Amino acid sequence: MASFYTLLAMCGLMFAVSLGMGILPLSVSFSRTRLAQLSTFGVGLLLGAGLGVVIPEGIESVTPANGPVPTHTIALALLGGFAAMLAIEQVLPAHSHAHHAGDGAVPTTPARTHRPRYSVTSDNELDLDLEIELLESSRGGSGAAGANSSAAERGKALPLSLGLVIHCAADGIALGASSLPTSGASANDALPLIVFLALVIHKAPTALALSTSLLSAGLNKPAVRRHLLVFSAASPLSALATWFLLNWFGGGSGVGSWTGVALLASGGSFLYVATVLQPVSPSHGSSSADEITRPMRILLIVAGMFTPLILSSAIEHGHAVVGTGAAAA
């Protein structure tokens, strides 16, 4: 049960960080540059956690001790996680609004004349990733500023928030699966902490941007807080549900191919979020490209990519030293 209590503590902290970051724009403003830097570092963390820790641990978990490597299972799990996030993105209501906005012969851009009362310190809207870009493009209209009524603007808040909640639930699966014991002991102690760190840094700026977008859509503060509560609770609840389900499928021990498959699917979803939702190479004119120089962006992504591996090695070394000292005693 020690792993469950650790997971419970991480879920509580994740909920508090997401909710706290989301509530802050209700009273204070933030530098867009710092948030863009944090979001870029989060891209590297997701890549490093997926490629360097989660996927290797998943492969080790699904591979029998003295058997062949199940390449088909590994490939299906990775592709399944990636494809699931792709399908969610295409089905979400936000995409339909964004696609319709670009169907005309004349290119359209989000209207910038309607400024939120509470916003990030900037001349433009905050745009940390594709999810928030869709929030803004849907809110902005198709070149006819002010054409939509305030009621229509508020009506968009629910489906757009729902899209982010679904993404959060998918992220929670990774945290829940990583908190279970696996058949591979090489990175087991470090894995939950690394996944937790990557998710928290990814969610903090997203929660803040969601809050500013909801305020811009005309929601009052109590309504924004309700949306943020659901958004903040999605990942923790999904992580706890995953932990219980995998424990049940694993006969209570948590050891087995189901945990490895869940880790691999989570690794695939991490890669999708890091490379598609938050492209490593931003398009010209994007807010991220404007706020961060190319060398700084490369530095932040590379630093984020290697951070999970460094943390994993440090935690393993610490446990090895403790184990050696206990054995000598």
From TrEMBL:
Its main location: membrane. GO terms for molecular function: metal ion transmembrane transporter activity. Keywords: Golgi apparatus, Membrane, Transmembrane, Transmembrane helix. InterPro entries: ZIP, ZIP9. The chain crosses the membrane at residues 6-28, 35-55, 67-88, 157-178, 190-216, 228-249, 255-277, 298-315. It holds the Pfam family Zip. The keyword Ribosomal protein does not apply. It is a multi-pass membrane protein. GO terms for cellular component: Golgi membrane. It comes from the Eukaryota. Residues 99-120 are annotated as: Disordered. One of its GO terms (biological process) is zinc ion transport. It is found in: Endomembrane system; Golgi apparatus membrane. This is Zinc/iron permease. It comes from Exidia glandulosa HHB12029. The lineage of its organism: Eukaryota, Fungi, Dikarya, Basidiomycota, Agaricomycotina.
